[in-house]
Amino acid sequence: MxxxxxxxxxxxxxxxxxxxxxxxxxxxxxxxxxxxxxxxxRNQRPLTVQLLLKLASVYKxxxxxxxxxxxxxxxxxxxxxxxxxxxxxLPGDQELxxxxxxxxxxxxxxxxxxxxxxxxxxxxxxxxxxxxxxxxETSLAAARLPTDEVRDTLEKRPNHxxxxxxxxxxxxxxxxxxxxxxxxxxKWFTAEHGIVVKxxxxxxxxxxxxxxxxxxxxxxxSERLSPFDQLREVAMEASLVRMQVAIAAxxxxxxxxxxxxxxxxxFEMGRYAAHALMMPYDAFLxxxxxxxxxxxxxxxxxxVSFEQAANRxxxxxxxxxxxxxxxxxxxxxxxxxxxxxxxxxYPQSRFxxxxxxxxxxxxxxxxxxxxxxxVEMPDGTQFMIIARTLEGPQGAFNERTRRTxxxxxxxVKHKNEVIYGTALPGGLTExxxxxxxxxxxxxxxxxxxxxxxxxxxxxxxxxxxxxxxAGLSAxxxx
Length: 478
Known about the structure:
This protein is α+β, with helices and mostly antiparallel strands. Among the domains are: 9-68, 434 Repressor (Amino-terminal Domain), CATH 1.10.260.40; 144-278, Arc Repressor Mutant, subunit A (Orthogonal Bundle). 43% of the residues lie in helices and 11% in strands. The protein is built from 18 helices and eleven strands. It has helices at residues 9-18, 23-30, 34-41, 49-59, 63-67, 71-80, 94-102, 104-133, 146-156, 162-175, 181-193, 227-242, 244-254, 259-278, 281-291, 295-301, 306-313, 359-362, and strands at residues 196-200, 210-213, 218-222, 317-318, 321-322, 327-332, 337-342, 371-376, 382-389, 404-411, 437-438. The strands form three sheets. It has a six-stranded mixed β-sheet. The chain starts with 8 loop residues before the first helix and ends in a 40-residue tail after the last strand.
């Protein structure tokens, strides 16, 4: 019976170094020659089953550790070298495999160094945000992925594009859609471009929301989507075709650094244009004012989803006809941020949006319910916050789909202009002020003492290490 041969030289060398043995000493323990052990450590001779058993017997070594691969180390190295700072350094994974297998200690050191680098970048970002809130601009910058660049660009500017609004109004007049925008768009596609729109079952489109087949000149839409999202996908495709010049001009103004970022921004511009087409500016603004921004009324009136109507509310930034300056963010159950925008830009420096006490996190335990709160930042700034879970694509019985929730906010001074202001607490504090929930921008830059929801220690304060006293918070600081 043939022996199983295992090449594990770097692991043997690491074990020997950990035991502080010379090659001669280990060779004597294993009843082999030092020269043979040297060949094993250089992967020029295999580690046989008999030698494996001997290692396990003499040094109490787990054989699985010698036979297994460094999959965990390799995956961590791949993650490290996918960072924009290092992404162009390696042509493939082969060198990473060699590092993980041949130099495991180097691999561990690289991982430790990258963790320290990531932590320092996070701290610099937190401190930069803190300085920005105090009126001190910084020039701190780090390598970013194209997705990060697109998100940052959209967060920092008003979520309003006048040129696209004008194009959408002209397109809407051309379509003369009435109450059937989807039907009008299908007719336009067929008449102008010979494109047929088809809804396909899950089996035919297992991984796509929308796909255009150039060979058959057909636009396929997944049946997984709700009727509202199906309409948006068709409206997006139509907007990208009809408004391509206006969209290209807007992208040019944003001065993105890479072609990939520009392609991603084109998708975002198409999404914006689709919302403008589905909910024409003037009609939507008038409906907002009459309904006091009741999103459920708006979604019914324009036959859109809650998410689409909430998104559109943040786009009402026309100079001569502006709505209440709402801002929004979308998160999942793990707290990952997917989208942030606002009529005046997302108020990162004033609001942050990373506080675990925000109602957007609690909304997952109350699906489809609108939660409304008045919140107060440490500097006294107050916001009215609305949160609700969203319906995503329909999954199959055995699929776990991504669940997200949306947070809408505006300055609390607008509470009487918004229907949700009636749901705010009616009580007053001892000083006669409105009851609010005290929040912070993010735990790492929040200095509220005794916060029961604190998840991290603040970077601006030293930890309190008094063995004779312990505060209510998970992290005491002085």
